[in-house]
Amino acid sequence: MRSDVQWATGVVETSRLQTQAQLLAPYTRRFLEQAGIIAGMRVLDLGSGTGDVAFCLAEMVGPAGSVVGIDRDDAVLDIARSRAASQGLRNISFVVGDLTSMHLDGLFDAIVGRCVLFFVPDRAVALRRLLDHLRAGGIVAFQEPGIQILPPSALPPSSLLDQMWGWIVDVFRHTGRDLFAGLRLFSIFKEAGLPDPQMHLDAFVGGGTDWPGYAYLVSLVRTLLPSILEYGIATEDQIQIDTLADRLRAETVSRGAVITTWSFVSAWTHAQVPAQLHPHSPE
Known about the structure:
Elements: H1 11-35, E1 42-46, H2 52-61, E2 66-71, H3 74-86, E3 92-96, E4 108-114, H4 123-130, E5 134-146, E6 154-155, H5 159-174, H6 185-191, E7 198-206, H7 213-223, H8 225-230, H9 236-239, H10 241-254, E8 258-270
Parallel strand pairs: 1-2, 1-4, 2-3, 4-5
Antiparallel strand pairs: 5-8, 6-8, 7-8
């Protein structure tokens, strides 16, 4: 799904995903609770990566429930499996496959994904296919980036932050990515035949010496570095990736500034119950 973007791999991308997961954890947990994830459910987690959303779900559904995580990258899933084993999570399994075409046994009470539809070309079509694996009235819940809905900003303004964000956005524009993917969830849900979703917007805000957001902001520059160089957006000398986070931190602290990251949009709804299954539907 990422063939048109040259991403850093291995330790670099795994580190970025886990930093993102750490920052997003409380927001993701809140949105899953609001969506209605409860004990005993069987949940499908799409694009599991190193497993953070799946681990949160496994805790929420408890031993009476179960979680199946899917990802195309078996090496990344090996990390997720190892982490699950170290945490003693027995109600979770990980499967290698393409979320738009793989076969799954049985129905799920919820289908969940974080930062996964962003990489799917025909998102409404893919979501409609996934609904075949959802029980009547089941939960559909996604959390996707809002690249240009609420872009990173600083007060006082930061020329370095603006430059970094320019590099990132230029990569996504070169590769045709949807810069409003999070906000697009409403229309994607509707096109897939789902009821209007409930939605909210989150972003990380911080400053001072110890804020982890500096490293997080730079992590996306680092992971997109192959594409930034390939498209001639910036040179290695201009970026100086190894000192970029320190420079952003130093600039922010010296000016007493505060910074926001890019935003994430959460959307959730319940699949409609077919009329023939509704106990009070007219004949």
